[in-house]
Structure prediction request, 82 residues.
Amino acid sequence: GWPMHRQIVQANRELAERYPGNFIDIRSHLVSLYQRDDEQDVQDFRHDLVPSSLRSDEIHLKDEGCHAVAARLKAFIAEKGW
Prediction:
């Protein structure tokens, strides 16, 4: 519920509405990849945050997070047949 989170969620919502066939909500995808056996990840999920297990700090992704983004982009491209 902090201001930046609300701004990001709102911006993503607007982009999804404006570009429904060409928008990927990477943030929500990453949030869904929390580790259910990791207490911090569970807390992050409950707060709608990218899980700590995928981040090196509050902003930057670890290699695992980068790989998750790349895999999602690859799947999106394949779904489009590009």
